[in-house]
Amino acid sequence: MLRLLSLAVRNVTRSKARTALTVGMLFFGVMMSLTLSGFVLGVGETLVDEAIKARVGAIEVHRAGYFAERDKSPLKLDLEQGGALEAKLKGTPHVTGVTPRILFGGLLTNGSRGTMVQATAVEPSSVFTALPLADKYVEGGYLKPSDTNGLIVGTVMGHSLALTRDTPVMLQAQAQNGRENALDLELRGTMGGQNPLESKRAITVPLAFAQSLLGMKGRVTEYVLAVDAPENVEATAAALRASLGNEYEVHTWEELRPVLRDARIIQRAILGAVSLVFLIIAVFGVANTMLMTVMERTREIGTMLAVGMTRAQIAGLFLLEAAVQALLGASLGVVVATVIVRVAASQGGFFVSMGEGQGGQHVMPMLLPGAVVIAVVAATLGALLAAVSPALRASRLRPVEALSST
Amino acid sequence: MWTLLAMAWRNVRRNKRRTAITLAAMVVGIGAVISIRGILNGLQAGIIKASAEGGLGALQVHRVGYLDNILSTPLSLDFPVEESLLNKVRAVKGVRAVAPRIQFAGSITKSVPPEEEMPEALFFTAVAVDPVLELQVCPMRPDLYVEGTRFDETHLVMGSALAASLAAKVDDEAVLLAPDKDGSLNGEVARVGGAMHAMLPGEPKVAVVPLGLAQRLLRMEGRATELAVAVDDLRDIDEVKVRLAQALGPEWEVHSWLEVVPERKLIMRLQDGISAIVSVVFLVLMLLGVANTTLMAVLERTREVGTMLSLGLTRAQVMALFLLEALVLGVLGAAGGLLLSSAFVARFSQGGLQFRAPSATKPFDVLPFLTPRFTLVVLAVAVVGAVVFALYPARRASRLRPVEALAGR
Fold this sequence. Notes:
The structure holds 2 protein chains of 2 kinds. Chain A is α+β, with helices and mostly antiparallel strands. Chain A has 13 helices and 14 strands. Chain B is an alpha+beta fold. Chain B has helices at 2-14, 16-54, 83-90, 133-137, 141-144, 160-166, 211-217, 237-248, 257-260, 262-300, 302-310, 315-348, 372-389, 391-398, 402-406; strands at residues 59-63, 79-80, 95-110, 122-129, 155-159, 173-179, 185-196, 206-210, 223-224, 226-231, 252-256, 353-355, 364-366. In chain B, strands 3-4-8-5-7-6 form a 6-stranded mixed β-barrel.
């Protein structure tokens, strides 16, 4: 076997131009499909990463029934702040951070005009334990731990309401008891990060502010949890469901933002299809070269058969030659794609702008190990498959005729 | 020349298996490139139609400064809706219809008997439209309505998320509250007409309100903040925009729907970019295949080249022969790819492909179609590229020395 392999390697190096073409095709196919997927998946993974670390959190815990009515952000389905529940959440294995929030709708006015907003009230002292990127894209400063009337708005919203640090702003909302209430706010910062899947009407206020506006002292509507590693999210959610019981409900970011999951699935399907066509075209190239090699080396095959090599060994030799070229091309492709993606990432990724003054999205290109393995295996398998027919053809030659051919 | 072409044709046919493999790669590559563009064409036409005719209107006319503040839907940048203004817009060449609108934000409550506890109010954004005129501008609007929905002077239609959170049934009474131009809160009773789907991502808590009702609610009788304009042909949208802006004067601003929702423009640009990269890679891979085949043909036919050269063919003719072989492959591959993609597009051009945008509640049909320009460019690149990629092997053949080549070295 090893001797066959060394023979195969020697044969591959015999015709440099042809080997270069075959290896080049596989290299180009693998490199391009990996680089493309690196950039496209980078967009998707960045959105997911930001959702988990800046907006949604890995896991959210609510009062039972909240999820079904989440479009209304009901205040009546609330939870105790601090206390036994929070302690229990903090003590759960794999949970690395816990922070309480209140979500509510309201009307933000600047004195002359108002508009609808979706407010998230966060506790500034603990928010970063569960949402470490909460202040990503925020310009001007985030809410300080003692803040009771700070406001963070999206860039577009701030612009629309002509908000500056000196503008008096008021948030009006329906309190937990049904009464309308309104309180003044001061602008602290604006959030430039804007992706088309998130509302431009999102604002952030301190938890203490929301609790006095909504008459919810010591109450919150949800807990956001961070989990040590993405692969532990499902298991941790399941463990929480079991330990918290029917009174509470536990959801992962995938359930809370099905949009992200769907976008991820669509993206991967499209990339898969594109990579498949890449490989089909590349494999046709390999098939051609192998066919050519067999024809060219007819006399050589005759000699090999005459000196006692079995037909299986002949077929194996040609398959090995294909495999060697495929592995060479694929590994080169992986190396170059890795370099491209690494270099792009070390430059800080790239910025997708949403248009003038609309903010944008930082994207970090990345290579998923799965994509690399799939590309290498597919290229090698495809090349082997393409070599099957030429290899069989070679092994079926008759020694005498093969030797006498020109 | 003709003799050479005939020879090239014969040579291509000589090694059927190799030709078949090369052509298969070309057909798959070209077919995929053209089909992908066809699907994107259909998808983007769907986005454009759903945007221009399903809610935004092709063009929007506002008072100067409105779009900058559109998220806060300022009511102070309003104007009286006069027939003379509408006629001025209608008179512009390329304008098909015009309808007044008011965008505003407020809260909605389902009215309940007084003995029950205080009902929950939901904040939402609304667009108030004239039930008759709006249909001329956005004829696709009713397609989005859930079955049994009615929209008229007294009934409002809510986005499905809003309708679901309010648990409102058709003909339920609802109370709208909204601050007017001066900031004082006002209320108005309306009836629920039903719910509507969304085909494109956007705000979930939205409603369409009859214009008359909104004018009473906002104390803006006879006034509006927006004119939605439909054009005869969406391809002329930019020219109509310029003419309309000229006709109206400096107190007005005219925007196309793309400027109102820049993220959709961005998404379409990204789609174009990625499909262009993919197309280039497909074409290069495929052409490398042609180069490979020509190289093999040259290597294999060294002695034959020697014979041709000794028989008096010039080096240019030898080179031309191999280039012609690549050309024949290119033309056959391009034809095959065109056939494949045409069959694909024809299969789905009457429907069958659907796309559901993230966070949309209703998918839309993607009807792929081919544009002659893109198709021709791809075919030309394939044919010319095949010849270009064969240059190196063909040159190599033409440089052979007759004696050595005849000896097969």
